[in-house]
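Researcher: Let's do a round of design. I'm pasting the structure tokens now; please hold your answer until I've finished.
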């Protein structure tokens, strides 16, 4: 709630969160990671090195090649 302190006085904040998961092939998970801005700033060599290490680690945890991705979506709406 601290991030909403600078809003106009008298506004209420309604918030909701929902969690969801999806199962994706390991290659899809790694391709999604590669598109994050954090990796785009690393450069190709560093990104390739990280993704190779991540592939090895995840292959041990998810031996069937399917990764479960867990997400939480947050929504905040200012109300009068």
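Researcher: That's everything. Go ahead.
Model: Designed sequence:
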């Amino acid at each position: 709630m601290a991030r909403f302190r600078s809003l106009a006085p008298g506004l209420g904040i309604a918030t909701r969160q929902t969690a969801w998961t999806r199962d994706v092939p390991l290659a899809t998970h790694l391709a999604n990671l590669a598109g994050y801005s954090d990796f785009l700033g690393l450069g190709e060599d560093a990104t390739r090195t990280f993704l190779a290490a991540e592939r090895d680690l995840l292959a041990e945890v998810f031996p069937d090649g399917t990764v479960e991705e867990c997400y939480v979506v947050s929504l905040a709406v200012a109300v009068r």
